[in-house]
Structure formats: C-alpha cells, structure tokens
Hints:
The structure holds two protein chains of two kinds. Chain A is an alpha+beta fold. Chain A contains four helices and eleven strands, in the order βββββββαβαβββαα.
Amino acid sequence: MAIFSVYVVNKAGGLIYQYDNYVPRAEAEKTFSFPLDLVLKIHDEKAVVSFGQRDGIRVGHAVLSINGVDVNGKYTAEGKEIIEYLKDATNYPVSIRFGRARLTSNEKLMLASMFHSLFAIGSQLSPEVGSSGIEMLETDTFKLHCFQTLTGIKFIVLADPRQAGIDALLRKIYEIYSDFALKNPFYSLEMPIRCELFDQNLKSSLEIAEKAGTFGPGS
Amino acid sequence: MSRQSNRTTESKKMNSELFTLTYGALVTQLCKDYENDEEVNKQLDKMGYNIGVRLIEDFLARSSVGRCHDFRETADVIAKVAFKMYLGITPSVTNWSPAGDEFSLILESNPLVDFVELPDNHSTLVYSNLLCGVLRGALEMVQMAVDIRFAQDTLRGDNVTEIRMKFIKRIEENLPAGDE
Lengths: 219, 180
C-alpha cells in the first residue's frame, strides 16, 4: 500500500473528505503479569508507552485494547483509568494490545485546517511574487502532495516517498470530485462529501495509481 | 452531443433533441408555476447559477486551462473552449467596450432553442436565461463578478443571439492562497 491517505479541504479550510488506505502494521498483543515492566504515561488523552520498549512494543505506541476489549482514550471500556487499573495486582494476568494510535476524526479536522493555514503561509514566505502554496511536504516516511484548484479546493495525498505519478493522481481525483460529488444534485458545495460513487471511484483510482504509477490519456 | 472527456469510460452520446425537449419542459413548467415572465427569468438565472458553480470544476478538471489574467483571455477561453466543450458551438467575441471590460458573444446557433418559437404572451421571457446564470456562477467561483444579459435573441426576432458580458470586479474575499 504505497498511497496512505487522501484528504479534501474546502475553501474555508474545513476537511470535507478523508480516506485512509493503509493498515497500521505494528500492533502487538501480549499477556503481562504484575508488575508491568513498561512505563506508561498519558499523552493526548491516551495511555502511551514512554519507556520499556521490547518485543515489538515501541515507545509511542498506545494501549489499544485490554483483554480484547477496546479502550476508550485513557479509560478502559468500563470507565476506569488505565494507569490505575494496571497498578492493581488483582487485575493481572492481563492481555494488552499496543499499537500506533490512529488519528481521530477531530484530530484530522484540526490538522487539515492547520495545513490550510500553512499552505497560505507557504505562498507568503516566497521571495518571488505570485508563488503557489505548499505543493509537497517530505519526511523520511511519507510525502504529502497538495493540489489547489483555481476555485480554492485542495486535494491532499499522503504517499510513500518512492511512489510516482501522484500529480496525475491528484488531477484524477479532481475529475472524480467534479463528476461524482458535484454532479450529484443532492451534494451541497463545501459540505462533507458522503457520496458512495465518489468513494468507490476514488478507491479504484488509488489502486490503479499504486499498480501502474501513471494514468495516461484515457483511463 | 458527446461528452468531451479524456477518459475511455464510454463517451456517452446523448440525443441533442432530448436535451432540447428537457430544457423546453423545464421552461414551460416554470411558466405554468410562476405565470410571470420576470419571475421565470429569475428562476432560470438561479438554476443556471447552481449549474455554473459545479460546472466550473468539471471544466477546470478536464480542460487544464490556467488562471486568466485579464478579461480578454477570459472571453477567449469561454468562447473557444467552454462553449465548444459543453454545447458544441463556438460563439464569436466582438463589440469590446473601450475600457475592455465588456464584450459580446455572438451565437449563430443555440442548441437550447432548436424548434422553439416564443408565443406573444411571453414576449419578455428570456428563454435561454439559464446560460446567463451558468456563466455568472462559473465565473464567480474563479473570483470574477460579472453581469450577463441577453442583448439580442433570435426567439424575439433578432438575427443572432447576443450575450453581453460586463466585468464588474474581482472578488477579493476568500482568494485561494497564492493568487493575489
């Protein structure tokens, strides 16, 4: 899976569509006995490993489920604080699943708005007049590509750094948006996109992009 | 008419007569509902506006034209690319005002009015007013405020159909970043 996610941001900076194409890999479930040799701390409303990395459980991984039941932020499903729960020897042996925490939809909304602002700053920082906003953001694990239409809508794709053909993919997503979102009379502009056909066509174009790497004329 | 697209998904051909009939049914129903030509003109303009704000994205996605930097470029793109793409006709651009902010599109043929005759009791009806709305909506989405009206109409006895477009101003609120 070389294309990780797609975001569509409207003119005002609000996220109107988001799709995750990847499966979080590193997840580890282990059974522990008292005392727990991992050090946990609360970070961003989640219980996160801060020290004691071992066996596939890395620093930064969050507690995803306890005894098979998904946790709710920093509380167990029953509402007890995880850290308190794990300090109590009577609750052991316990099976905990750790993994990289997924972004919640609120977090994604905030990140999209932040990116919208950074995009504008990008064009203002430029020493040249009339520069575009941020087109690509590169890190060692992914590249973020952004395409802004003349009408102010931004299409953002996060992909593997080696993935080619993302520009063509962005144009293709623009076409799919203009077809299945805009031509649906029941879809209101600037609102979240909830169109089945848009989802389906987007997924298939992501598959095509991953395999072929290019679209070419007529695909 | 066929859908101009750079996709090999079946290029859909639709009978242009069905299009004319559909538009005609729309206008006559509006006339029955509102019974007042001015009101019908307004409704057609509103409907055209809603089409225009959506059509512009389709146009930009398919035609890869960049941003137009003056009104003359805009006029050329509208006449040579947009009208050709959607209605299959190429109007001519004439009658520029001295300040370069107003021009006319002369249409020799108008697919919306094939086979149509306006009766006497609808003399103030602007039958193709949808087109005005479409152009207005589309240009508003690329930050241009324009005033569009029909100066001549073959349905009302003129020789050609003339659409007069006047540039009002650039819409500065909510400019996409990087576009000043």
